[in-house]
Specification:
Layout (H helix, E strand, L loop, with lengths): L1 H43 L7 H28 L7 E3 L1 H10 L7 E6 L7 E3 L1 H17 L5 E10 L2 E8 L6 H4 L17 H10 L4 E7 L3 E9 L6
Parallel strand pairs: 2-4
Antiparallel strand pairs: 1-3, 4-5, 5-7, 6-7
Helix pairs in contact: 1-2, 2-6, 3-4, 4-6
């Protein structure tokens, strides 16, 4: 009980810090995005080709700001109390929307297998989109040269199963047990919150997330959630 109390107090402190950091960072972030947008429009008004290099630099700035925003969102999602706002959600449409806002390099072959008559699932669309974004981004990063990204959905009993499969570098047996722990990462750039956040968001829907992986052959992350959620 003492350990649980310490963890609870620590999470409450992280939550307060996350709220302050989010507030203090997002205002200047929005300012940067606004200035980038204005500069981009002015450069586009120049003679064709004159501002190409500057436009590339602005795109790089925008990507870095988006990455900063992800860090803040991950920290807040991991630390704050979660109460999903459930709504009947078309999984096919949710996946399509997520893919349209995620950078999939040309060297990645993308395919999806989702039944046309797949039933709507009672989830919080925003939270599940965060889960899918993290899983798809991780899959892409696991295939730096080339590979296949496969997204599947199937109905099993009273549950919906959504899987994100890659043919990337895979995960060692040593790291498998640590994957969903906060602050664990094997990446040179990363905070180790992405998968911990995924686990927390899926569990907030009374679901589970699992992984199967082979080094050198790839990984498959599977979300299993009730079609009719038991979240209260």
């Amino acid at each position: 009980m003492k350990e649980e109390l310490v963890n609870s107090e620590r999470m409450a402190a992280i939550g307060r810090i996350a709220a302050m950091v989010g507030h203090d960072l997002r205002n200047p972030q929005q300012g940067i995005i606004n200035h980038v947008s204005i500069a981009r429009e002015r450069l586009k008004a120049l003679p064709e080709g004159a501002g190409n290099r500057a436009l590339q630099n602005l795109d790089a700035i925008a990507r870095q700001v988006k990455y900063m925003d992800k860090i803040v969102s991950d920290l807040q999602d991991y630390a704050r109390p979660l109460k999903p706002n459930l709504a009947p959600t078309d999984i096919r449409q949710l996946i399509d929307t997520t893919l349209s806002t995620t950078n999939i390099p040309e060297n990645i072959e993308l395919s999806s297998a989702i039944p046309v008559d797949f039933p709507d699932v009672m989830v919080d669309p925003d939270l599940m989109r965060r889960v899918l974004t993290n899983l798809i981004t991780n899959a892409v990063q696991a295939m730096p040269e080339r590979g296949k990204l496969i997204i599947r959905a199937e109905k099993k009993d009273k549950d919906a199963l959504v899987s994100v499969e890659d043919t990337g570098i895979g995960i060692s047996e040593e790291n498998m047990a640590k994957l969903f722990q906060p602050l664990f990462t094997t990446k040179a750039r990363g905070q180790g919150l992405g998968l911990a956040v995924c686990k927390r968001l899926v569990e907030a829907h009374c679901g589970i997330i699992s992984v199967e992986s082979q080094v050198g052959r790839g990984s498959t992350f599977t979300i299993r959630i009730p079609i009719v959620s038991e979240v209260k």
